[in-house]
Design brief:
CATH architecture: Roll
Order of helices and strands: HEHHEEEE
Structural class: mainly beta
Number of domains: 1
CATH superfamily: Hotdog Thioesterase
CATH class: Alpha Beta
Number of strands: 5
Distance between the termini: 16 Å
Number of helices: 3
Largest sheet: 5 strands, antiparallel
CATH topology: Thiol Ester Dehydrase, Chain A
Strand order of the largest sheet: 1-3-4-5-2
Strand content: 25-35%
Shape: globular
Length: about 180
């Protein structure tokens, strides 16, 4: 995780945001068959639940269902939008500011130490997914890479009906390099 898009603050700021919403965002696009097809192609993943309505219905779904592992795809903010200035070669890489980046903390470096996701409901073409990120724990620690903290963030993914479709728990070590 580079320093781009990280919210800087004190460890007290980090502690104060535990249990509060630090980010809420909606994906710029609805779930769609074209993106599902592209994911299947790149993985060479031949599972008819994701491209054949009859097979999906025969297995208890309304129709074609998105692969569960695409959940974050449907909420990733746009990297660039029409009307924004075009990036130059000197600019940092474009990267959307996700929930764990919005937790205020010192240090401009970090890495993910664990990530787990539970999937609850199927996601279908036409669904719109939103995400809400809440920091749940901070544990200060000095490692060989520097002084920092393990910060846990829980992101809840919801479809337009209000149904929770998934919950992701990420732990990042945010630090100031030694």
């Amino acid at each position: 995780m580079a320093n781009n898009g990280l919210t800087l603050g004190s460890w007290q700021d980090t502690e104060r945001c535990i249990g509060t919403v630090v980010a809420r965002w909606a994906g710029p696009d609805e779930v769609n068959r074209a993106d599902i097809r592209r994911r299947l192609e790149v993985l060479a993943w031949d599972c008819p639940l994701h491209y054949d309505d009859a097979v999906a219905r025969a297995n208890g779904y309304r129709g074609v269902v998105a692969p569960a592992t695409m959940l974050m795809t449907w909420v990733t903010p746009a990297y660039w939008s029409p009307g924004d200035p075009a990036p130059t070669l000197e600019d940092p890489p474009l990267f959307p500011s996700l929930g764990l980046c919005r937790v205020p903390a010192p240090g401009e470096a970090g890495f993910v130490t664990s990530c787990e996701t539970e999937y609850f409901e199927p996601v279908y073409p036409g669904d719109r997914i939103t995400a809400t990120a809440v920091p749940t724990e901070v544990i200060r620690k000095t490692l060989s890479v520097g002084d920092g903290a393990f910060i846990s963030v829980t992101t809840t993914y919801t479809k337009q009906t209000g149904e929770v479709v998934g919950v992701e728990r990420v732990v990042v070590f945010r630090y100031t390099p030694a």
